[in-house]
Amino acid sequence: MTRTTGSTTLDAQTTTTLPGAEVLLRALVEQGVEVIFGYPGGAVLPIYDALFKQNHIRHVLVRHEQAAVHAAEAYARSTGKVGVVLVTSGPGATNAVTGLLDAMMDSIPLVCLSGQVPTPLIGNDAFQEADTTGITRPVTKYNYLVRKPEDLAPAVHEAFAIARSGRPGPVLIDLPKNITVGDAPYVEAHAVTPRTTRMGSQPDRAAITRAVAAMKAGKRPLFYTGGGVINSGPQASAALRRLVELTGFPVTSTLMGLGAFPGTDQRFLGMLGMHGTYEANLAIHGCDVLIALGSRFDDRVTGRLDAFSPSSFKIHVDIDPSQINKIVHVNEGIVGDVGQIIDLMIEEWEKQPAYAHKSDLDAWWTQIESWRALDCLRFGQDKAPDAVIKPQQAIQRIYELARQTGRDTYVSTEVGQHQMWAAQFFRFDAPNRWLTSGGLGTMGYGLPAAVGAQIAHPDALVMDIAGEASTLMNIQELGTIAQYRLPVKIFIINNHYMGMVRQWQELLHGSRYSESYSDALPDFVKLAESFHATGLRVTRLDELDATIQKALEHNGPVLVDICVAEGENCFPMIPSGAAHNQMILGPEQEASSATISKEGQMLV
Amino acid sequence: MQVEVSGSAVISLLVDNESGALARIVELFSGRGYNIQSLTVAPVDEHGHTSRVNIVTTGTQSSIRQVKTQLERLVPVSRVVNLTAEGPYVAREMALVKVVSSGEPRTEALRIAQAFRARAVDTTASSFVFELTGSTDKLDSFIELMRPLGLVEVSRTGVASICRGPQTIQNF
Ligand SMILES: Cc1ncc(C[n+]2csc(CCOP(=O)(O)OP(=O)(O)O)c2C)c(N)n1
Ligand SMILES: [Mg+2]
């Protein structure tokens, strides 16, 4: 076929020709790449050789290609840069697939470079050949098979533009070995016109005016913010704060959006959705104007669709036009960068006549405060010194004690109950600090994500809130942590169960705990020690704080095995297929909730 | 929730003529559960850099709107127009229809072919291959009429479409 990238303007006089691998690295340097997460193999040896001979780019050797992608995702999410991955052909590329889909679902900008057999061998079932572009097409935003040397540099430049533009995502470049060994012309980024430029459009000012008019008319308004605000950059989070300040409206956030608005602010209602707070879910059910900013009405958020926020005027701001009206029909869709649109909303808010429903808004806040008074996250911890630790207690204390250190803190999680408790109990002041697998829910994300975050922020406190089952899915990354002396703190909330599975089995499958017990677990303390890390274990309440403190104070990697109560469930919970006003509450709240939820229903 | 009626739509795209572009489009339809009734693709510019793809799909209005925005996200896709929604357009396809018969059915087949302005592009003592161009409906009815007259095989191109008047896909 004819060409694989956007148009290039080649100036014959100034063209430099270099071995393909060097062209590749030069393009990466020009794109500002500082770190690559990767794993070598036959098809990428020329690239590894070129890496060996230079000092601009640091390579971090992971222990599994899936982990390389998760590490790059966390690097990207915590820095705002594009994460870069390098894997070999065949099994190297297929191992990366889960990570690529994870990045796709959570809109994380990545460039994944994969080796490929030489072009003359493609299609012959050569050793370690895989149809990598075919396999990764549905899990990437775009991918390339570079067949001609002159396409190499333009493909790299365009890949970065695609990864970071619009709704960000992963881009893969498949590099046949003859392309990286043979000579290729170097083309500078400015000489390449990426095809992303076709897509840009100006935000619809009239729609913004109408949206703000609807906000001004709102008596029970609510902001529902998502990962799009984080992707838009720190200035979007700052703009969101100003808009909330200006309007006085309450804010709830998706799992991916945590940190965009300060979690400790009184106007923050906590996360919404399946394990969201009581007040956030009842507010979304009862609001009359819903302003969705960079969120995508995921099914974990909406619950039963025909009962989702039934009486609200819906405004949806998203950079991706295909998200608007995809799941929920909205009254006003605005396409564009959410940060820029929030700025325009602020401008418009100040221009339009003053908000005239202050007393209704006050009544709405009174209602919300009455929901908040239920204290839906409260749990019953036995206070005896030798009491079994509740998982919520462990996570809450990790949060509080880490906060007391005053250090800049990054938190990754695995997937399961511990992830939801972490989302509930951790309150983030700033964006880009919360690293979790939202859309795909990939067990095994947290440990490599901690690696990526610590590489990006060597002086920060990086913690992984983990489950014992998830951790084992990428436990080999303890080797990476040891090699680079990464002082990450891994807290395993060890409930001896795939807790989230166990919870669903208890609530929906008659307590038949089919294959969800974590049998034959390793001794995590010894496991940590064998990987040259410090291992700690705590089993009693009175040792919890001291053990967490000790882990936080230690200046090397620490793995803490926190043995917690086995049967705890994560509440509130909206069972799938239920509406937001049909939450299941914890045992602590059940008694009082009946009356309050009736009140809630009366309101809406 | 109101129930939306399903209908068919002709979607026309301009795409970069690169390997994988068609796969991306087809996988978008299959991966998201949309249906493709027919699909045509061929290069249309002088250098062969750009191909035009015509897809006939069925769905509710909102699902077809979704398809369109999803297609617009694809990097090699530079234009997407839902011709059915955007106003008058011409849609034509070609069919090759093989009829094997003799005696009265054979003469009847030839007569109908003449009425439809189908050309016999291959003739043997026992068979015809008719070539027919026209709207999908016209081809459908021709094929229906041929069925009792010895129809044994059909090959259709799928729809090529273009909007009427001076308007082009570029300036939608
Ligand atoms: C790769 C993968 N496989 C399976 C699942 C389904 N799943 C979701 S949560 C979970 C249990 C996680 O157990 P653990 O890590 O111990 O966390 P806990 O829920 O106990 O806190 C499982 C199996 C998944 N999300 N990802
Ligand atoms: Mg567990």
Automatic annotation (TrEMBL), chain B:
First-level EC class: transferase
ACT domain: residues covered: 10-85
GO terms, molecular function: acetolactate synthase activity; acetolactate synthase regulator activity
Pfam entry (one): ALS_ss_C
Domain of life: Bacteria
One GO cellular component term: cytosol
Enzyme nomenclature, EC number: 2.2.1.6
Pathway, per record: Amino-acid biosynthesis; L-valine biosynthesis; L-valine from pyruvate: step 1/4; Amino-acid biosynthesis; L-isoleucine biosynthesis; L-isoleucine from 2-oxobutanoate: step 1/4
Keywords assigned by UniProt, alphabetized: Amino-acid biosynthesis, Branched-chain amino acid biosynthesis, Transferase
Entry-linked InterPro entries: Acetalactate_synth_ssu (IPR004789), Acetolactate_synth/TF_NikR_C (IPR027271), Acetolactate_synth_ssu_C (IPR019455), ACT-like_dom_sf (IPR045865), ACT_dom (IPR002912), AHAS_ACT (IPR039557), AHAS_small-like_ACT (IPR054480)
PROSITE patterns in UniProt: ACT (PS51671)
Protein's GO biological process: isoleucine biosynthetic process; L-valine biosynthetic process
Catalyzed chemical reaction(s): 2 pyruvate + H(+) = (2S)-2-acetolactate + CO2
Summary of the function given for this chain in its UniProt record: Catalyzes the conversion of 2 pyruvate molecules into acetolactate in the first common step of the biosynthetic pathway of the branched-amino acids such as leucine, isoleucine, and valine.
Family to which this protein belongs: Belongs to the acetolactate synthase small subunit family.
NCBIfam families with a match to the protein in the record: acolac_sm, PRK11895.1
Alphabetical list of PANTHER family matching this protein: ACETOLACTATE SYNTHASE SMALL SUBUNIT, ACETOLACTATE SYNTHASE SMALL SUBUNIT 1, CHLOROPLASTIC
Subunit structure: Dimer of large and small chains.
Name of the protein: Acetolactate synthase small subunit
Organism expressing this protein natively: Acetobacter fabarum
